[in-house]
Design goal:
This protein has about 160 residues and is of the alpha+beta class. It has helices at about 1-25, 40-50, 55, 135-165, and strands at about 30-35, 60-65, 75-80, 80-90, 95, 105-115, 120-130. It has a single domain, classed as 2-Layer Sandwich (Alpha-D-Glucose-1,6-Bisphosphate, Chain A, domain 4).
Length: about 160
């Protein structure tokens, strides 16, 4: 009988864990942004690929506090308050995370060739909206709209830099 009770308790616990995991997955927000660059991917990427280039895009400060700019493991400090870790890099992309962020915030900057004279610039953000201070649906929507507007402006700035002579 004890064995049966223990098995039932374990099944209940496992089902709860699975349900909690499924509910949390729905709380992640993805903001995919893109624009076309009137330059080949290799030429454009040279102008916007630095991990600390975000300082110019956001018109603030950025310093590498650990590691080397452009290498996995580098840590950048933005606006003297936000630390981000570069977690991946390819020839035409990089991904970063905010390691101590309660929202599990991370993003990817990528460029893709379209043809000889054009490329597509993508900036994708992903974060856990459930971890935001306010949990109401309207607050989560407002937060997503704020981030979308902010990074749409960042993308426009990146486009201008990438296309500059």
């Amino acid at each position: 009988m004890k064995l049966l009770f223990a098995a039932a308790a374990a099944l209940t616990l496992a089902a709860s864990a699975l349900a909690a995991g499924a509910a949390r997955a729905a709380d992640f927000v993805t903001i995919p942004l893109e624009t076309t660059i009137d330059k080949p991917a290799d030429a454009a990427w040279k102008k916007i690929s630095g991990f600390c280039d975000i300082g110019a895009w956001m018109k603030t400060t950025c310093v590498i506090t650990s590691g080397k700019d452009g290498e996995v493991g580098a840590v950048r400090r933005i606006a003297d308050r936000i630390d981000e870790l570069q977690v991946a890099r390819t020839a035409w992309s990089y991904s970063y995370s905010q390691p101590k962020s309660p929202t599990d915030y991370h993003g990817t900057v990528e460029i893709r060739p379209i043809d000889k004279g054009h490329s597509k610039l993508l900036y994708t953000l992903v974060y856990d909206a459930d971890a935001l201070p306010k949990h109401e649906p309207a607050d989560k929507t407002a937060d997503k709209e704020r981030r979308t507007k902010q990074f749409t402006n960042v993308l426009a700035t990146m486009k201008g830099i990438a296309e500059a002579k």
